[in-house]
Amino acid sequence: MSTKIVNAEVFVTSPSRNFVTLRLTTDDGVVGIGDATLNGRELAVASYLRDHVAQLMVGRDSRNIEDTWQFLYRAAYWRRGPVTMAAIAAVDMALWDIKGKYAGMPVYDLLGGASRRGCRAYGHASGMDLESLFDSIRYEMEEGYKSIRVQTSVPGIEKLYGVAAQAQSSGERYDFEPANRGSWPVEEDWDTRAYLRHVPTVFEAVRNEFGPDLPLLHDGHHRMTPREAAQLGKSLEPYDLYWLEDCTPAENQEALRYVRSQTTTPLAIGEVFNSIYDIKDLISEQLIDYVRCASTHFGGITQLKKVMNYAEMYQVKSGFHGPTDVSPIGFAAQLHVGMTIHNFGLQEYMPHSEKTKEVFTESLAFENGYLNPGETPGLGVEFNAEAAEKYPYEQAYLPYNRLADGTVHNW
Ligand code: GCO
Ligand code: MG
């Protein structure tokens, strides 16, 4: 059986938003695809793949996934970083896709088989006021979601992450995709004291309206110091959150020791991490409850499976990052991991737009709050290069934050 890679192609397309896709083809015509999308910095990864990786793939045996991963990681000499690891992720996913197609099995079967019937997903609710927030929660529940992330506007903050229906500078609804098309990042504003005062009142109102049972989540989006994060965690304890996400930037893993010692609110971190070394202390010291890493930004299926096997020893579960900037390929890749690991927790799910689905045909099903990648051999996603051509790359930037005095703050 011949399994040599003969072609490695990189596509950048923008069906509603930008995506970077790698396509590997073997000499008997089997095709594997991988996601290398890095929101706001897409072309850097496309160049890394096109200019430095593609020629190294040609002639390699597609079967040796671990060896290829180690080769790309170690032979670059310069380790880690979001650009490098998104490029490695794309190769890794494409190789798993190819292996699944050769085997005639979905990737989760190759990873050890299904540990569950489906992966429970959470939806996104937000509102400018309580009424619109309640409507948004009801809508998500009608869509089938059994767990819901709640983001709210805060009096005194004009433009805030995660609040749909908020006007963007372009005049369009903010919805779920925070990146704005254009050549300059949009400025948003931030006031930690106003936020810390307001958010607990919103969760109190939500609990009064929806009762104690519904699992609720909230994303702090890296904006607090450890002490402020501890204050928020404590003040949310009466509302029994499923998790509080990115309560503080975690480049400094020790910072979580203080937060953890002050509050029993469950903590989830990791969407901006790209290596197991970014999260190992958070796991081994049990400073978090959920791993938020995404296959696309974390070196692919191979590294995500390893970190989750490590986390299993410490009773830390998965909560993989699943916004629309993870393409349907990256999303499928982590869903296959979620299907097989014992310590699956919850999967973020933001359905892709119709244009995106025209370029990426998915086999996944979302039913009654659960996601299933289906039985299609490989990842279960097809990339339509002709449709992709209709949507050329458009520059887009994530917003950034300034405080009232003009200081740049974490976004
Ligand atoms: C989430 C994330 C996203 C990020 C986005 C940046 O929890 O889903 O915080 O909304 O902001 O992925 O590109
Ligand atoms: Mg987040």
Automatic annotation (TrEMBL):
Molecular function in Gene Ontology: magnesium ion binding; mannonate dehydratase activity
Gene3D superfamilies reported in the protein's UniProt record: Enolase-like C-terminal domain (3.20.20.120), Enolase-like, N-terminal domain (3.30.390.10)
SUPFAM superfamilies from the UniProt entry: Enolase C-terminal domain-like, Enolase N-terminal domain-like
GO biological process, one term: carbohydrate catabolic process
A Pfam family that the UniProt record links to this protein: MR_MLE_N
Xref: InterPro entries: D-mannonate_dehydratase-like, DgoD-like, Enolase-like_C_sf, Enolase-like_N, Enolase_C-like, Mandel_Rmase/mucon_lact_enz_CS, Mandelate_racemase_C, Mandelate_racemase_N_dom
Domain (Mandelate racemase/muconate lactonizing enzyme C-terminal) ranges: 130-266
Signal peptide: none
SMART domains xrefs: MR_MLE
PANTHER family recorded: D-GALACTONATE DEHYDRATASE-RELATED, STARVATION-SENSING PROTEIN RSPA
Name assigned to this protein: D-mannonate dehydratase
Source organism (scientific name): Corynebacterium pollutisoli
UniProt lineage: Bacteria, Bacillati, Actinomycetota, Actinomycetes, Mycobacteriales
